[in-house]
């Protein structure tokens, strides 16, 4: 598993990635995510395609230490998805571990994310990776924190 920039050469293949039908209410599509990134440059969006070999299998997007807003100067996992055909293979865990390493290398001690509660919510996945609730609600979503101790 590795991360690659989204370019003109792979953009269509990355946009074609889809989650399962029951997951759609919890995660925006890649196309919507790229539109949000373009419309909100102040969030300092950082995004990559998740690859398994030469095949795009997922997408990750962060707010990379935005200068203002609720996550000012913090790293926030804004969007994350693994294509339905590649789920339950450990790729999501590998991808978020890699992202956490990049965030830690940028000097951060935590990685934040949020989720919408409901039947089929991604909380069990995030908890298995070590994320814990912060007690904060943002835009109707529960905020989680992953501590990133120095290595």
TrEMBL record:
Stretches of the chain forming a coiled coil according to its record: none
InterPro entries referenced in this protein's UniProt entry, alphabetically: Acyl_CoA_acyltransferase, GNAT_dom, Sper_AcTfrase_N
Domain N-acetyltransferase: 1-149
Classification via SUPFAM superfamilies: Acyl-CoA N-acyltransferases (Nat) (SSF55729)
Classification via Pfam families: Acetyltransf_1
Name of the protein in its database record: GNAT family N-acetyltransferase
Biological source species: Streptomyces thermoviolaceus subsp. thermoviolaceus
């Amino acid at each position: 598993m590795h991360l690659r920039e989204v370019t003109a050469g792979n953009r269509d293949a990355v946009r074609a990635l889809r989650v399962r039908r029951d997951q759609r209410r919890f995660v925006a599509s890649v196309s919507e995510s790229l539109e949000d990134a373009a419309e909100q440059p102040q969030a300092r969006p950082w995004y990559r395609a998740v690859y398994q070999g030469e095949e795009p299998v997922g997408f990750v997007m962060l707010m990379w230490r935005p200068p203002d807003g609720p996550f000012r100067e913090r790293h926030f996992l804004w969007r994350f998805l693994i294509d339905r055909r590649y789920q339950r293979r450990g790729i999501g865990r590998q991808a978020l571990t890699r992202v956490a390493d990049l965030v830690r290398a940028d000097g951060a001690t935590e990685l934040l994310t949020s989720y919408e509660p409901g039947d089929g919510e991604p909380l069990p996945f995030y908890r298995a990776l070590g994320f814990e609730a912060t007690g904060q609600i943002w835009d109707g979503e529960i905020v989680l924190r992953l501590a990133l101790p120095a290595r």
